[in-house]
Amino acid sequence: MSIKKLDQLLKVNYERKVKLAVVASQDEEVLQAIVEANELGIAEPILIGNKEETRAIAREKGLKIDDYEIIDEKDLVKSAEIGVKLVSEGKADFIMKGLVDTSILLKAVLNKEWGLRTNSLLSHVMIYEVPSYDKLLYLTDGGMNLYPNLDDKVKIIENSIKVVKALGNERVNVACLAAKEKVNPKMEATVDAMELKKMYEEGYFEEGVIVDGPMALDLAISKKSAEIKGYESQIAGEADVLLVPTIEMGNGIGKSITYFANGKSAGIIMGAKAPIVLVSRADSHESKLYSIALGSIISNHLYK
Ligand code: COD
């Protein structure tokens, strides 16, 4: 099944109910999303955090968590370590951030002794459903890597391809974004995009993937704009992946989709030994649930 809308993530026939380690579970919105995900057969939680507070929130909100395993740990750094170790020891399939700073969780994930590093780069992929675009958009990396170089961008693209393919798509159109479509040596984004396109033309990326650029955002998502500007590309107006050159561009596009265009979203960190669900406090409850479902699909597909 190919996922074209985010609510389809909730209707997938999950092969197995994967185990989700939740770091710092004392968060109302996170608990709500987890309970719902569990009821839908998407993931079975193991909670790590302040047991008393977690139970109190659940009682107050009428959430049934009596059957859940809860590891009592009030210290946030230690909670992150326990969560990461549960995954590295194979006792959990993926991990989610609760009421803890992103950097605390990511530093635990990156720990050289017991973390979840691989030879790849960890990178963030955010999926957006936008009313004015008839495909899902995979924005990367607006969440983790600050100023990726060319090698990093190759790995960021590879991580995003895994997500697009896990959602049942064989073709992946990757648009390497910049501020313009002509290469300007003073604009690193344009130079890197040209190199990435060259790598694609030389057959570097896997089958079904097209990488093109540099292009501005309008050319990636609007055929009309490409026609008016006489921009020729097999993927103009039909991008799946939007590769951004900096975290600021990614963050700006993502927030614009959410706040100006009423977009829905789901996000995940790829490139580690297991998917990492990193939701922001401001994300809607729906978005948190979609992100858990995305993590579960990826666990089912890529980390069986
Ligand atoms: N993938 C694999 N290894 C990495 C990565 C990565 N993406 N980033 C760093 N590492 C490794 C480095 O090779 C090094 O060995 C170690 O981790 C520490 O690297 P530093 O010193 O560059 O990184 P830190 O510890 O200062 O911070 C790493 C973070 C992931 C926390 C940092 O990249 C970060 O703060 N990213 C932005 C998160 C953020 O604020 N997002 C905003 C929107 S939510």
Can you give a write-up of this model?
There is one protein chain. With 304 residues, the chain is an alpha/beta fold. It contains ten helices and eleven strands. The chain has helices at 28-39, 51-61, 76-88, 102-109, 150-166, 188-201, 217-221, 223-229, 247-260, 285-302, and strands spanning 18-23, 43-49, 69-72, 94-97, 123-129, 136-140, 172-177, 209-215, 241-243, 264-270, 276-277. The strands form two sheets. A six-stranded mixed β-sheet has the order 8-7-9-6-5-10, sandwiched between helices. Strands 3-2-1-4-11 form a five-stranded parallel β-sheet, sandwiched between helices. Helix 1 (28-39) packs across helix 10 (285-302) and helix 3 packs parallel to helix 4. The longest helix is centred in the last third of the chain and has 18 residues, at 285-302. The radius of gyration is 19 Å and the shape is globular. The model has no long low-confidence stretch (mean pLDDT 95). Dephospho coenzyme A (COD) is lined by residues 102-103, 106-107, 110, 121-122, 143-145, 280.
What is the element layout, followed by pairings?
Elements: E1 18-23, H1 28-39, E2 43-49, H2 51-61, E3 69-72, H3 76-88, E4 94-97, H4 102-109, E5 123-129, E6 136-140, H5 150-166, E7 172-177, H6 188-201, E8 209-215, H7 217-221, H8 223-229, E9 241-243, H9 247-260, E10 264-270, E11 276-277, H10 285-302
Parallel strand pairs: 1-2, 1-4, 2-3, 4-11, 6-9, 7-8, 7-9
Antiparallel strand pairs: 5-6, 5-10
Helix pairs in contact: 1-10, 3-4
The chain binds dephospho coenzyme A (COD).
Name the descriptors.
304 residues; alpha/beta; 6-stranded mixed β-sheet; globular; binds dephospho coenzyme A
